[in-house]
TrEMBL record:
Residues 149-171 are annotated as: Disordered. This is Solute carrier family 12 member 1. PANTHER family: SOLUTE CARRIER FAMILY 12 MEMBER 1, SOLUTE CARRIER FAMILY 12, CATION COTRANSPORTERS. The gene is SLC12A1. It catalyses: K(+)(out) + 2 chloride(out) + Na(+)(out) = K(+)(in) + 2 chloride(in) + Na(+)(in). It comes from Sarcophilus harrisii (Tasmanian devil). It is a multi-pass membrane protein. It is found in: Cell membrane.
Amino acid sequence: MSMNNSSNVFLDATPSHPNRFQVNVINESHESSTAADGNHDPPHYEETSFVDEAQKRLRISFRLGNQELYDNFHQNGETDKTDAGFHAYDSHTNTYYLQTFGHNTMDAVPKIDYYRNTGSISGAKMNRPSLYDIHEQLAKNVAVTSGSTDRVANGDGMTGEEQTENKEEDPNAGTVKFGWVKGVLVRCMLNIWGVMLFIRLSWIVGEAGIGLGVIIIGLSVVVTTLTGISMSAICTNGVVRGGGAYYLISRSLGPEFGGSIGLIFAFANAVAVAMYVVGFAETVVDLLAESNSMMVDKTNDIRIIGSITVVILLGISVAGMEWEAKAQVILLVILLIAIANFFIGTVIPSNHEKKSKGFFNYQASIFAENFGPNFTEGEGFFSVFAIFFPAATGILAGANISGDLEDPQDAIPRGTMLAILITTVAYIGVAVCVGASVVRDATGNVNDTIISGMSCNGSAACGLGYDFSRCLNQRCSYGLMNNFQVMSMVSGFGPLITAGIFSATLSSALASLVSAPKVFQALCKDNIYKALQFFAKGYGKNNEPLRGYILTFIIAIAFILIAELNTIAPIISNFFLASYALINFSCFHASYAKSPGWRPAYGIYNMWVSLFGAILCCGVMFVINWWAAVITYVIEFFLYIYVTYKKPDVNWGSSTQALSYVSALDNALELTTVEDHVKNFRPQCIVLTGGPMTRPALLDITHAFTKNSGLCICCEVYVGPRKECVKEMNSSMAKKQAWLLKNKIKAFYTAVAADCFRDGVRSLLQASGLGRMKPNTMVIGFKKNWRKAPSAEIENYVGIIHDAFDFEIGVVIVRISQGFDISQVLQVQDELEKLEQERLALEATIKNNESEEGSKGIRGLFKKAGKLNIIKQVPKKDSGINTIQSMHVGEFNQRLVEASTQFKKKQGKGTIDVWWLFDDGGLTLLIPYILTLRKKWKDCKLRIYVGGKINRIEEEKIAMASLLSKFRIKFADIHIIGDINIKPNKESWKFFEEMIEPYCLHESCKDLTTAEKLKRETPWKITDSELEAFKEKSYRQVRLNELLQEHSRAANLIVLSLPVARKATISDILYMAWLEILTKNLPPVLLVRGNHKNVLTFYS
């Protein structure tokens, strides 16, 4: 069978084997057109078909030439709807062909609405059928109607009434959205073309020369271009919302970086408003000074004009983005005219006055003279670069209003990169033109011409008939080095350059005035800084941040009134550079993390180039001003630490998360290559807590010796019908892991569904963990109700201990007097919380209806309450808390609640008594030692109890002290117990016999036939032969309890060697009786048994 991969054919016109996975539609003309197509048929694959021969002609054959037919059938990714009748297996009605792939199924076809976020402003999120919906057996009583079928097929299960009820207005209706030209290109060009173009570029060329001047411009452009490329990659890796640089950085690197840079970036934009306005005010004041029209003095005039200007700009901004955009276009037109005016002026023949000021039109001699540098005292390449670089900034002007763009993913890369190109050409063009036509120094005196026979210093001006040699000895007022108004002099019409200066300053101020509130609003909406939530509110159809505008206005006015921005200006430039650095680093970090979610549509980027851009930005920060760079880093570091400490409840899928995963995976894989060593042993526990909140004390004591040192996995086994168990397990996984995080417990949660408890635990013991991070210790609570429990439960409980030993996993059994399970208390609390919420909701509803009329009011109340599900029947519970609604909090089992928190409290001065009776590898000793390192247990001393011979107590005490010192384990005392193996007193033994009496078979008192019958019927009971065979061991457990009562009654915690029951030899009931009598009436007890492999060593 050959395969035809022609792109012109998607489906065969007449397949020999009909395919049920086709969308069939009646279209005779289409079939005839495809039949006439001369293309070769694609291959046919044999498969079972449920379509009869009459339906072979009914299908869509999608070819490149038939796009119109396809578009007519599918509009906006949705199938056309019909009101025709429908039957589940009716293949002749139109609705049949509207189902997914042409047959009755709930499976949904791919659709963008399934991938939207909840609350998306670009469209409503739809929910596709869950795996449960399409995997489980379909209910027999489901009736399929024509009106609902296509909604189900497309994942929208709402009825028509619900759709009407939930229908919302289009959030984008009436909003003003900008394209890439007006929204990005215009703004970036205006922001990049600043005052520097008109009043500083000529000075830079005079100092650095044309060659180094172009290099300075090029180096600045390299920084902005690399940042633009990185920003373009980030912007095209998903939908971009409002917030500009803050949004890009926070969604890439997470809230810690985004929150820190977002705040200082918004502040920098607010202060930049003041900087640009003061630049405008200074130009106006200079014009007033020339005409002797000063109002007060220079400083106060700047304050007055600056304040008035900011008020006017604020009015334009508050009027709406549409008005602001129109103002920007007008300002750009003025700016372009001013630049064109300069270039025209360079070709207009110079007059005597302009020549005396150094302008001679284009001259090769001037170009050659000005090509090299001529730095004055105190200036150098980097100082000149530091002065020029702020002129190249402004590339984020378009990104900062990303929320107001029609298509930010397309507009930001296209507009920003084109703006960088255009402005770079303009800067280089102006630099070359001014360098080729104006000399460095000129006197401005029209009489400084060269007379015949007069000696000349050989300068370019000298060759052109002017003698400016006195500028070598004294400072002149004109030329590239001395006159900041060179462009105005060169231009064809000087006032247009002044208008260009006004346009550049006002447009930059206006852009910053809009950017700061937009970025600040996005930051506040994310609620990273809770105190700033007030500024998140937006107004009007464009969600304008009016509160942010007012705050920006206040900040701008404050800095305008200072009227001295030379100190703050370097810090602002560094704030912008810090943003650029993080944008570049975001692109690098996202690429380095290798997340499958990093798929930018803008492919012209490289991770290492982005990293170079980030390093370059950091270097430029120090070149511009080292102390401002240090201040920037200190502020950013402080905000980073603050946000990290607060841990905002957000999850943006940042590259930091992706890199954490990659690092964890790499470390886990690397760990598998390293053999285990006894020095690195740590308890890695699997804790059978059930839901972690139901047995908090069991989790707390385990967490005490695993926190920051070992693995802790809380496990739950769901027993019952698999379908219900799996559904409940899947729905509660995230909730229970979240509970661990909320309570700052460093543990994992996992669960399994099984037919019985033991099978589930067995699965957990075998499959839990990853590589070397696998559990080596199982922690369980003592089964307090074993005497009332069915024999199967006891068999399962003892069985999991046997299973753990089979898998060479240590066992820790924890017993406290009140037990661990507080699930009943939690049920009561949950019910009371629900009732309290319903009561508050009902009170709120009553309060809202107080103003309504009597008859209408009471009916409306119950109607509304019913709608809100406030009035409802509380179902009866079978758990013995049927009257839970009337219970009071004080009726809880307070002792149980207090016992569940006992390990959360500081233990105070006391002892941990370690009864190390059997050598299990050292786990019985290691766990209490780790506990003494914890803050809550550090005041407790270790007392060691070991068994020994009564005639060798001192020798064995010395030997044990020597062993502990070699293990470097501090202890308060060592006790050698020499009377462990004597018989217990009669009262204790009698209590033990009475305890096991109901479970004894007493077969020796019965005839052989009856005894055999009883063994078959109750195999779990203790036989007389078993009791006699293990009488000495039973004596030992009872005797140990007496010794524990005598020596450790006042201990904070007892750690005791766990007796091991030999499989198929000791019955489960007898073993439980041993554990019961061993730990009865004692403080909290840990019964510990390691896997008999060394966990302690005295070797270095």
